[in-house]
Amino acid sequence: MSKVSERYYAVEKVLGRRVENGVIQYRVKWLGYPASDNTWEPRVHFNEAGYREILRFNMNRKQNA
Asked: What pTM did the predictor assign?
């Protein structure tokens, strides 16, 4: 039986938010990676630390609105 290993990457900052096919996605800057490696990720791809970055991003959006 083979075991699939999962890799976890640290979120440096959440940069944006969009809705794609009814799913909210966040633009992520990954810690230790260049901006060219930024990706759009759905909420379910975030661990607890990453979720805190989503909350920080959403709070800043509301303050600047």
From this structure: 0.82
Whether 16 and 26 have beta carbons less than 8 Å apart is answered as yes
Which backbone phi and psi does 40 adopt, to 5 degrees?
Answer: -95, 125
Of the candidates 17, 60, 57, the one whose C-alpha atom is nearest the C-alpha of residue 40 is 17
Q: Residue 31 — φ and ψ, nearest 5°? A: -60, 125
Fold of 11-63: OB fold (Dihydrolipoamide Acetyltransferase, E2P) (2.40.50)
Per-residue pLDDT for the chain (65 aa), expressed as one digit of tens each?
444 456 778 999 999 999 999 999 999 999 999 999 999 999 999 999 899 999 999 999 888 87
CA distances from 62 to 16, 41, 59 (A): 13, 21, 5
